[in-house]
Structures are given as C-alpha cells and as structure tokens.
Amino acid sequence: MAYFSYGLLNVGSVPSYYREVHQAICSRTDERVPLSVFQRVLSRTSLSVTVQNQIAEHVNSGDGFLSKVSLYKGLALIALAQQGKPPSPKLLENFIQEFPKPQLGEPKELQSLKMQTVQESPLNLSLTLGELLKKDTIKVELIPEKKGLFLKHVEYQVTSECFTVSVYRRYTDFDVFHELLLQRYAYRVVPALPPKRALKGVLTSMSEREFIEGRRRALGRFLNLVARHPVFSEDELVKTFLTFSGSDVQTKLRDACKKLGDEFMTCKYATQAKDYLPADIQSQFSSSRELIKNIHNSFQKLRDRAERMAERSKENATDLLMFGKELSSLGSDESPVPILASCKSPWAALRRSVKGLSVEFSLLSEKAAQQGRREEDDVVEKLNLFLDLLHSYRDLCERHEKGVLHEHQRALQKYGVMKRQILSATVQPKEQVSVEQLESRIVQQENAIQVMELRSYFSLFCLHQESQLIFTYLPITSHILGAFVNSQVQGHKEVSLSFIYLGVKAIHFNVRQS
Q: Which GO biological-process labels does this protein carry (predicted)?
C-alpha cells in the first residue's frame, strides 16, 4: 500500500487495484496514460456524461496525457462519484483512509481499451478555435456606388480566401441568403444581418457614411461566422453565395435551397439523434444556456467599454488637431508688434516657434487617430464578432422553445382531440365514411407527431453542438486581450515619444529666448 501527494493535497493510501489499472492501460515505454484511453475508462462507468466530463476536466493537464498520479486521482473521483458524491478534488483533501475502489471490472479487461481506435460521437465537435479561423477569411469592401433613378445603390465586393475569388453583392442578396440559411438550418446558430435602412440622406453626410461603414463591418462578421461554421462551411448555399458571379445570384440560391431541403432531411444522423443524446441533455442545455447568457452580458459590457475608449481616442485626435490649428493661427498672425517703451517684446520670434509647434500637434493627432482605429479594428470588432455569435445562440434557443417544442405540443393536443372524437363516434354511431375519414386523419396525425418527435430530438442534437461551438470560440478572449494590450502599449509609446519630442522643442525654444 502506498501514499502519494497530488500538488499541495495530502491524500490517502492507494489500493493495489489502482496500480493494476495503471499497468493495464499505460504503454510499455511511457507510464503516462493517453487522455483518450482514460475517457474510454470513464465510458465503462454508469456515470452521466456531465459527471464524466467533470472528472476528465479535473485530471486533464492539457497535453493529452495523464501522469500516474493524475490517473490515481481520476480513479478516486470515479469511485466517489459512483457512491453519489460530486466529483470534486476537494473530496481528496486530507483523505486519510484508503481510497475507494471504482467499479470498472477486472484490470486485465481494461487492456483492450488502449488498443481501440477512437470512434468520435457525431454529437461532439472536435475542432479548435484555430481550426475554425483557418476555414476561411472573408473581406467585404464597399465599391463605388451606382446611381439608380432615385437612389444610389450600395454594392459590396466579397472576397473569400478559401475560394480565392471576388464577387459583387447587394444588401438584398445578403437578405435572401440569410433567409434561405434560416430555412435550411433552423436548428443552428445563423447570425443576424445588420438592419436595412432607406437612404434618405445623401451619402456624403457623416451619419450616412457611418451607417454604411457599420453595415459593411457587420456583413463581414456575418459572412466570416457563416464561412467558419463547421456545418455551413460545407454547404452548397455558402459556396454559391461566395463564388457565383452570374447576374441573378438570388435565383441560383433559391434553386439550390429547393434542391437541398432543410437539414433534417439531409443529415444522416437526423433520425438517430436521440441515440446520441446523453440522458441529462435537458439539464446540460439549461446549464449551458445560463452560463452563455452570463458570458453574453459580460462581453456586452466589455464591448461598450472598448467602444468608449476608441471614441475617446478619436475625440483626443480631434482635440489635438484643433489645438495645433489654433497654434498655427496664432503663429500666422502677421500683425506688427508695437515697440513698448518699458521692454522689448519677444513675440515676433515666439510666434514663429508657436507656428512650428503646431505641426507636431498634427502628428500627435494622427497618432491618436491611429490608436482609435486600432482599438476599433482589433478590439471592438473582435468583441462584436463574438457578440454576434452569442446573439444568434440566444435566438436559436428561442426558436427551439417557441418553434419545435410549441409545434410538438400543438400536434399532441390535436391528436388528443381526434382520439376523443373517434371515441365519441364509437359510442354514438355515425356514418361509416366519417368514422373512416377520422381514423385516416388520426393515422396521419400519428405520423406527423412521430416526425415532430424526431425533429425535437434533432433540434436538441444541434443545440448541443452549437453550445460546444460557443465554448470553442471562447479562447478568442485571449486574442482580444492581446490586441487590447498591444494597442495600448503601441499607442502610448508613440504618443509619449511625440510628446517628449514636443517638450524638447519647447525647452530649446525657452532656452534660446532666455
């Protein structure tokens, strides 16, 4: 019997069963155990998927392997969980007695687990954020507007790195594409489009330009989220929108959607979705939804703060520019300086230097403007991208509850009414034709309910995957923080150097005057 210490935890004695399990599932050349093998050990237990995931998370070091000590910790957590206790490492703190033995069968029976090929469940998304981002990068640029009879039409150049092609699209093309995506993928996170607004003012007005630029950015985020989605990215609709250069892309998109149908009709797992769902799928969905809601609220606050910082940088740039212009105006005044009896005024020389300093303030203004653009492009835009995804997840949850579940309940209610009618018809004899029609309608309704049940399970299947997608995107937080820190460091460094140079010039001028 041996004792071991896990980090700062003083834990109890290790049964020989633990060492036998370790010898059964580790390789001959490495005492570590692959995480995938440990996950197969977990799958042999009667524990729920949620508890299995919690145990795997507690022992996962991030390199894909478990040390011997980590395996022992995992086996102890399995045994405690099988006793009905929550799988928390705190349970192992100051554990004096021998660790309990998990119910896994004979150790020799576990040897085959390290030989098995991993068969990933189609329910699980195995992509990383890096792999999603590599799928494609879409650029959406404004092209010179074409004047219509009454309005100027805004057109966009859409360029896909994946397909290495550029196409031209109007907002109405995006609108049709979005509508068809929702029809085909009602159970997925389809990002929302930015609002369409009638161009009442002229495009040269500041507010109109800002609106069009904001819409261009939002359309770019929409396409990037769609093109990087693990399911959408493989769809013919997406390929058509990003590559078709014909005159009527909307007709082409509608034809493709009619030919394909909705995802339930084309996905090979649609009718088997129930078999892949964990028993506690509803509680998993509820907890994921609540957590994602909290993340959504926090990211909205982060985005609002980042927008305010970017706006302050722009305002600072304007103030510096105006300050420099005032100095220039002051130094450009050619009015003669009167000769006073009491002293000789240095103003004639001073105003020339003041005018020279105004150039430095123009440079400072440009540095501050660059800082604002960096904050907007590298920080605010990334926050908005993730927020767009979170918004679409919230919309998906509402579609699931108000759409699929509501329709299922209505179908069951209708079926109940029909059953009561047929019972009434048997008690009170009616025409044979009407009874047969009612029976036929009941059969049709039973078939409809069966399809709706399958759709309901498939909706949960997709929801589970889309929840995973949200968590896959979460490491974008480190990208955002890195961009924020780099932006602040670079901006303050550039502005500080400019101010130092400005200060040196001012001191030099003061010395010369004295």
A: early endosome to Golgi transport; intracellular protein transport
Spatial distance between the Cα atoms of 34 and 469, rounded to a whole number of angstroms: 24
AA letter at 387: L
Model confidence, pTM: 0.69
Residue ranges of alpha helices (H) inside 332-431 are 347-374, 381-399, 406-427
How many other CB atoms are found less than 10 A from the CB of residue 225?
22
Lookup result for tokens 């590298």: 378
Residues of the chain within CATH 1.10.238.10 domain(s) are 16-115
What pLDDT band is residue 120 in, cutting at 50, 70 and 90?
low
Which band of pLDDT confidence, cut at 50, 70 and 90, is reported for residue 308? very high
- Name the one residue in this structure whose structure tokens are 């699980």: 124
What stretch(es) of the chain map to CATH 1.20.1270.60? Answer: 303-334+347-513
Out of 1.10.260.40, 1.20.1270.60, 1.20.1410.10, 1.10.240.10, select the CATH number for domain 303-334+347-513.
Answer: 1.20.1270.60
Structure token pair of residue 292 = 């994602």
pLDDT band at 304 (very low <50, low <70, confident <90, very high): very high
Q: What is the mean pLDDT of residues 379-405?
A: 90
pLDDT of 75 > 50? The answer is yes
More confident residue, 211 or 11: 211
**How many other CB atoms are there within 10 angstroms of residue 259's CB atom?**
8
In terms of CATH architecture, what is 130-198+205-266? 2-Layer Sandwich (3.30)
Name the residue with tokens 């078939």.
447
Q: Which of 271, 292, 257 is nearest to 456 (CA)?
A: 271
The C-alpha atoms of residue 78 and residue 83 are separated, in whole angstroms, by 9
Task: Using DSSP bridges, classify how beta strands 65-66 and 152-160 pair: parallel, antiparallel or unpaired.
Answer: unpaired
- Whether 242 and 224 have beta carbons less than 8 Å apart is answered as no
Percentage, residues of the chain above pLDDT 70: 76
Decide if 455 contacts 406 (C-beta within 8 A): no
> What does the pLDDT read at residue 252?
95
Domain with CATH 3.30.1520.10 in the chain: 130-198+205-266
The reported pLDDT for the residue numbered 139 is 97
CATH number at 16-115: 1.10.238.10
**What order of strands is seen across the sheet that includes strand 138-147?**
138-147, 152-160, 165-170
